[in-house]
Specification:
Largest sheet: 2 strands, antiparallel
Strand order of the largest sheet: 1-2
Helix content: 40-55%
Radius of gyration: 27 Å
Number of helices: 13
Distance between the termini: 68 Å
Low-confidence stretches: 12-53, 141-157, 368-375
Mean pLDDT: 67
């Protein structure tokens, strides 16, 4: 029997240590040549294979070394914000590569006619970092063991946003990222319906699906890829999740009460949520083993309990925080002011917040870093 050669397993991935980015003019002059390595962005990989993300390993190592910790902090705070940060940082790094500046001062630079491939490779480098972050968080999340009644329970650890999402998704399936085609359909539903009516043959459902298919296939490969990436990173049905949360709260308490393991209990929960339209929605969830409604025993329930809580949430969750969820982005990443906003029915403060946020996003989208090598 021929012997089969067994290659040793690859070493485990270790997150690189954070290295501060040198700032010109502050303290001692940075030794860029000592930090950077003579890496090359060539048109072919060392083994002769070409791929979409053929970027030199030296460059990716420098990216991980100097930006991993910043990206991890952004990702733990908000994966959506991390995606925006990743796109902007990839552009900045590519400029450094092209100009041979910063940590890439002694590299051979980027391929002159492969700028898009270089940019895709840098973005893929950050996506690989996201995978490492999720694996690390998954190892850190564990269900605590049962604590005897005589022993006081320990304070639960503070979980990151991503770790909390992993736990919640194990209990309930919230509406998360959707497919790129589904996101495209959601934002172009009116146009698709109009196209379906033009070719009406008596089958409304068939006409709509055919119009959707044709509209989607008319997009080129890069446009469809952009919709898929956006769906994975940004698409989340917040309105549906808020409806589901109300059912979840009632379901959790009622299920615990019906197990008989907690004895008789009654509960009242006040819940306020900022919708994607920017309005504040306050709901009361009541239940228990008696089957009676506590609200029925209180006169002026809303005035005494709901209204004060609603006013307090208005102060701690200002409308400007929800304005960014109303303003969408086009395929190029530029903000688009919502056309379905009813200006006459929208409160002045909310409308002012929308306009202010839109102008801020518009300015940041058009602003870019000046490349001194082109001056």
């Amino acid at each position: 029997m021929p012997r089969v050669r067994e290659d040793p397993p690859p070493p485990p991935y270790e997150a690189p240590a954070s290295v501060p980015v040198p700032v010109p003019g502050v303290g001692a002059a940075p030794n860029l040549a000592a930090d950077a390595a003579p890496g090359v962005l060539s048109d072919a990989l060392p083994n002769g294979q070409n791929s979409k993300h053929d970027i030199d390993r030296t460059v990716t190592d420098l990216v991980r070394k100097h930006w991993f910790d910043d990206y991890e902090a952004k990702y733990n705070e908000s994966p959506t914000e991390a995606a925006k940060w990743r796109a902007q940082k990839s552009e900045e790094i590519l400029i450094l590569l092209e100009c041979k500046e910063g940590f890439f001062a002694v590299t051979n630079g980027a391929r002159g006619n492969r700028r898009k491939a270089n940019l895709d490779a840098l973005r893929q480098c950050f996506r690989n970092m996201a995978g490492a972050i999720l694996k690390k968080q998954a190892k850190q999340v564990a269900i605590p063991p049962a604590v005897p009644p005589t022993v006081p329970a320990a304070v639960p650890p503070i979980l990151s946003k991503s770790a909390a999402q992993i736990i919640v998704d194990g209990m309930f399936k919230l509406a998360g990222p959707v497919a790129g085609r589904a996101l495209y359909e959601r934002e172009h539903k009116d146009d698709i319906k109009a196209s379906a009516k033009v070719g009406n043959t008596g089958n409304a459902a068939g006409n709509y699906q055919q119009a959707l298919k044709q509209s989607w296939l008319q997009l080129d490969k890069e446009e469809r890829r952009a919709w898929r990436e956006r769906a994975q990173e940004e698409a989340c049905d917040i309105d549906r999740n808020q409806e589901l949360l109300l059912s979840m709260v009632h379901f959790i308490f009622m299920s615990m009460a019906k197990t008989g393991r907690l004895g008789d209990l009654e509960f009242v929960a006040l819940l306020s949520m900022r919708t994607t339209k920017g309005t504040l929605r306050t709901e009361t969830v009541v239940g228990g083993t008696s089957g009676k409604d506590f609200k029925d025993s209180i006169n002026d329930w809303d005035e005494r309990y709901v209204d004060p809580f609603h006013e307090w949430v208005e102060r701690v969750l200002p409308q400007s925080d929800a304005a960014t969820t109303v303003i969408r982005q086009d395929e190029a990443g530029y903000p688009v002011f919502a056309a379905d906003i009813k200006t006459l029915e929208t409160p002045p403060k909310h409308l002012q917040s929308l306009v202010k946020t839109f102008l801020e996003l518009l300015y940041s989208a058009y602003s870019s870093i000046v490349s001194w090598c082109n001056v």
